[in-house]
């Protein structure tokens, strides 16, 4: 049964008439991307891939927890270990400085192209979401975290995140906005457009 609201007395045509709520086409259901009139230049597309290296690094670290992924990860060790080693040598305050600099210096500045700012925010949101999942899972009992359930959980999370990050990198290289549910709307909210 559809709920009915009583009409205003001034516009009531007759006794007992009711007004049924209707959806409006003028109210957007999500945030819309600005119209893309032309493809971003190649250097903006390449530069937009850099923020995704941090979530890719974090995904790789959590993927090593899943024993099922070790044969898969061994194929790419020669590509990832130099970057992982470099990240490991950075001071502990670097991630905080990275987030503040990227957010205040890139995302909130209108001088940077909207496409680039969007991908910087998406990379930051993917990193934050994975860190939240990691922190919550550490509160679980060790039998769950290191047990069979944890192994399957981290296998699923690693595959989902790996393919999500690779899809975001693909979208940035092709000059598109990455359409990740929930995160793309959250990223668009952070960027001042006017």
UniProtKB/TrEMBL annotation:
<keyword id="KW-0150">Chloroplast</keyword>
<comment type="function">
    <text>Involved in protein precursor import into chloroplasts.</text>
</comment>
<feature type="transmembrane region" description="Helical">
    <location>
        <begin position="118"/>
        <end position="137"/>
    </location>
</feature>
<keyword id="KW-0472">Membrane</keyword>
<protein>
    <recommendedName>
        <fullName>Protein TIC 20</fullName>
    </recommendedName>
</protein>
<dbReference type="GO" id="GO:0009706">
    <property type="term" value="C:chloroplast inner membrane"/>
</dbReference>
<feature type="transmembrane region" description="Helical">
    <location>
        <begin position="149"/>
        <end position="169"/>
    </location>
</feature>
<dbReference type="InterPro" id="IPR005691">
    <property type="entry name" value="Tic20"/>
</dbReference>
<keyword id="KW-0934">Plastid</keyword>
<keyword id="KW-1001">Plastid inner membrane</keyword>
<feature type="transmembrane region" description="Helical">
    <location>
        <begin position="83"/>
        <end position="106"/>
    </location>
</feature>
<feature type="transmembrane region" description="Helical">
    <location>
        <begin position="42"/>
        <end position="63"/>
    </location>
</feature>
<dbReference type="Pfam" id="PF16166">
    <property type="entry name" value="TIC20"/>
</dbReference>
<keyword id="KW-0812">Transmembrane</keyword>
<comment type="similarity">
    <text>Belongs to the Tic20 family.</text>
</comment>
<keyword id="KW-1133">Transmembrane helix</keyword>
């Amino acid at each position: 049964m559809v709920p009915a609201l009583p009409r205003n007395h001034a516009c009531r045509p007759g006794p007992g008439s009711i007004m049924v709520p209707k959806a409006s086409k003028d109210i957007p259901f999500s945030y819309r991307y600005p119209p893309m009139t032309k493809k971003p230049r190649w250097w903006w597309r390449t530069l937009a891939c850099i923020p995704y290296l941090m979530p890719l690094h974090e995904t790789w670290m959590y993927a090593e927890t899943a024993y099922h992924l070790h044969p898969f990860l061994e194929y790419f060790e020669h590509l990832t270990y130099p970057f992982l080693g470099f990240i490991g040598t950075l001071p502990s305050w670097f991630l905080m400085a990275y987030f503040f600099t990227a957010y205040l210096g890139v995302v909130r500045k209108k001088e940077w192209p909207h496409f680039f700012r969007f991908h910087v925010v998406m990379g930051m949101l993917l990193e934050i979401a994975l860190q939240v999942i990691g922190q919550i899972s550490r509160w679980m009992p060790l039998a769950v975290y290191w047990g069979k359930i944890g192994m399957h959980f981290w296998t699923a999370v690693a595959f989902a995140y790996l393919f999500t990050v690779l899809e975001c990198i693909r979208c940035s290289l092709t000059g598109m906005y990455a359409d990740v549910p929930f995160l793309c709307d959250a990223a668009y909210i952070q960027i001042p457009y006017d």
